[in-house]
Every structure is written in C-alpha cells, then in structure tokens.
C-alpha cells in the first residue's frame, strides 16, 4: 500500500495560495495527486499541466518514489507581463511505498498534463489459497 507523504506539503500549498508564490521559493512546490488501488495495482495520477515530458524526472530509491518536474515561463525577460498567475519553477513530490509493492515493475505514462504511475502489488503480498489436508476431505481456505 502507499504510505504517508510529507505532512508539510499541504501547509506549503495553502500558504502559497494565501500569500502568493513569487517563483523564488527555496522549497519546490507540491504536485497535486490522486492515488487509488485498482485490482492488483496502485495508480497515482499527478497533475502537471503545461509541463514538458522531457522535464519530468521519476525515480524509485529505497521504496521512495520521487517525482520532479519543471515548468518555465513562455515569455522572455523583456516582455511586459500583464498577468502571471500560473505557477512555474520546480515541482516535487515524494511517496513512501510499502514493502508489499513491486517497485521493480513501476510503469509511467504522461498524457494531457497528467502523469500516471502504476505500481503493481508484489506477488508475495497477494491473497492466495492454502490447501488443508486431513480428516478425510480436502478443503481450501484463503490466507
């Protein structure tokens, strides 16, 4: 199962919304996400609108999944910006993955500004039937 995330990310997100983000934050902005189990895998969807697929970095190390991405401004330094509300700069998110997930078979795809990561449940963590013998009849029960 997916485990905890950084508890201060939500506080950072709310403070950036309240006080604004000037792009000079020392801590990367959090990436909004949804996570759910679908059959024998966990699906995590990260919102990265306007981010080039080339700027996304995804890695797993010691059961920690890290997503980093960067969105640059489309305008140049000399341009007269009238409104600049879209967040830009570096975005990051870490997920701590449980031991029951198969981190060697993680798959990722990027479409329409959404990075979808699929993390299969490890075979040894899946429920299985165990045969019980004796007493004249054979019976199977789920473990």
UniProtKB/TrEMBL annotation:
Residues 24-135 form the SHSP domain. Gene3D superfamilies: 2.60.40.790. It comes from the Bacteria. InterPro entries: A-crystallin/Hsp20_dom, HSP20-like_chaperone, Small_HSP. PANTHER family: HEAT-SHOCK PROTEIN 20 FAMILY MEMBER. Belongs to the small heat shock protein (HSP20) family. This is HSP20 family protein. It comes from Prauserella rugosa.
């Amino acid at each position: 199962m997916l485990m905890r995330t950084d508890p201060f990310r939500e506080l950072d997100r709310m403070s950036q919304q309240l006080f604004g983000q000037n792009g000079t934050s020392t801590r990367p902005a959090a990436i909004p996400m949804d996570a759910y189990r679908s059959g024998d895998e966990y699906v995590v969807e990260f919102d990265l609108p306007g981010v080039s697929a080339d700027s996304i970095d995804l890695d797993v190390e010691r059961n920690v999944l890290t997503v980093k991405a960067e969105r640059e401004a489309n305008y140049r330094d000399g341009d007269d910006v009238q409104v600049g509300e879209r967040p830009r700069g570096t975005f990051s998110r870490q997920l701590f993955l449980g031991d029951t997930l198969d981190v060697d078979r993680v798959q990722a795809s990027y479409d329409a500004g959404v990075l979808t990561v699929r993390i299969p449940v490890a075979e040894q963590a899946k429920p299985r039937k165990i045969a019980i013998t004796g007493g004249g009849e054979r019976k199977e029960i789920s473990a």
